[in-house]
Amino acid sequence: MSEINVTPFVDVMLVLLIVFMVTAPLLTVGVDIDSKAGPDIELPKTEAGPITPEQSPLSITVDQQGKIFIQDTEIGLDELVPKLKAIRDAGGGAQVWVRGDKSTSYGNVAKVLVRIKEAGLPVTLVTDQLDQL
């Protein structure tokens, strides 16, 4: 037999390619410039403001009776879209978390989800983790 079997070589190369593709994004590390700069080196100045941390999500809750709350304030279903649009236009509401009580009807939560969609905001449904059996 004078031929070389390249199948194991190709298999190993594909596995290595996948390993490198997964680990390469993890290897990018930021460099702390202040510790690297000497005493006579000054960092450039700009007019840009500081980066603000990620905003906390806007929480909308539907209780057992179908009452709707934005954060801790009760609000009517008809008032929901204008209020959400005002929050969005003011720069808030990047994330909207919807919490529905498990004993409320699915229709109550669905009505709220439709109103949030009308306001043009992204939605995340919040649930509790199941207990391990």
Describe what you observe in this structure.
This protein is of the alpha/beta class and 133 residues long. The chain has a domain at 58-125: Nucleotidyltransferase, domain 5, CATH 3.30.420. The chain is 36% helix and 14% strand. The chain contains 4 helices and 5 strands. It has helices at 7-23, 33-36, 77-89, 106-119; strands at residues 58-62, 68-70, 73-75, 96-100, 123-125. It has a 5-stranded mixed beta sheet. The termini are far apart.
- Strands across the major sheet, in which order? 3-2-1-4-5
Under the CATH scheme, which architecture of the domain at 58-125 would be assigned? 2-Layer Sandwich
Helix and strand composition category:
alpha/beta
> What low-confidence regions span 5 or more consecutive residues with pLDDT below 50?
30-38
Give the terminus-to-terminus CA distance: 57 Å
Q: Class of the domain at 58-125 in CATH?
A: Alpha Beta
> In CATH terms, what is the fold-level topology of the domain at 58-125?
Nucleotidyltransferase, domain 5
| Rg computed from alpha carbons, rounded to a whole number of angstroms | 26 Å
Q: Rough shape?
A: elongated
Portion of residues within helices: 25-40%
Number of helices: 4
Mean pLDDT: 77
Strand content: 5-15%
Number of strands: 5
String of helices and strands = HHEEEHEHE
The major sheet is characterized as:
5 strands, mixed
